[in-house]
Write a structure and sequence with these properties.
Blueprint: H1 2-37, E1 41-42, E2 48-49, H2 55-61, E3 62-63, E4 73-74, H3 76-108, H4 112-123, H5 130-141, H6 146-153, H7 167-191, H8 196-203, H9 208-236, H10 240-245, H11 253-260, H12 268-298
Antiparallel strand pairs: 1-2, 3-4
Helix pairs in contact: 1-12, 2-12, 3-7, 3-9, 7-9, 8-9, 11-12
Length: 299
Amino acid sequence: MAGQDDNWRPLVRPLLIPTWVVVGAFALLPVLLMAVYSFLTKEFRGGVIWDFTLAAYDQFFVTRGLFGDEPAQLEWTYISIFWRSLWQAGVCTILCLMVGFPTAWFIATRPAQTRGIWLFLITIPYWVNLLIRTVSLKFLIRDNGPLNESLMSIGLIDGPLPLVNTNLAVQLGLFYSYLPFMVLPIYAAVERYNFALSEAASDLYATRWTTLREIVLPVVKPGIIAGCILVFVPALGAFLAPDLLGGAKTFMIGSLIDEQFRGSQGNWPFGAAVSMILLTLVLVALLLHARAAGREGAR
């Protein structure tokens, strides 16, 4: 085996060149450009002036009043938008986990010949563009939509439920968009789980809750963590659901960034600065998780 590895070793680096080119051109270069733009000066007709400044970051964290002549104070407007985004993404992740784990367990415990059908059903909604799915959800939950009309027709409610332009509508949009991102990694982890461990625990008089807490969850933990990351990160920067299903009171960080790059009234350096702050926050969280996982693996 060692001899075969030595024969392939000279080819590894040349074969990785296309991968590094793609990663550099479509991942690292855009981030680098965004970092540079975050330190430039806003052009009043849109675009940037190549004068380096910290004004965009200063605008995010500090306010000096309408005319800029007041003592500097912490700017809570954008911090509250950040906090709302974290809250919505966190709730979405928890809801997806609560629904996704039983769903993944159900699929993984079906006969092998039917699991593909269940996975196929999970992915069917994702054959349609996310924009169309979000607009369809708005049509479904609007005041005179099918949901409200059905509830009123059977007498459960007297008037339409005001669902659109609420945090609940945004949460529904996020949950609907990212649920499969939770189901699939957990399914992959549960499918590899050795169910003989559960049988052994049962033989030792362990309750179902004890078996789940002490045996199942530690084994499938990597799949749960992967699912949480896959749901939380895109939900944190989502802008379609807040834009189409929420209102001004449900503004999220993705909508704030999107707004800065629209038309001539946008503020490109500020949008780039907000993007870099969001990126830094996510990277720090992922690095802390990777470090904790590394320590746990070293024990």
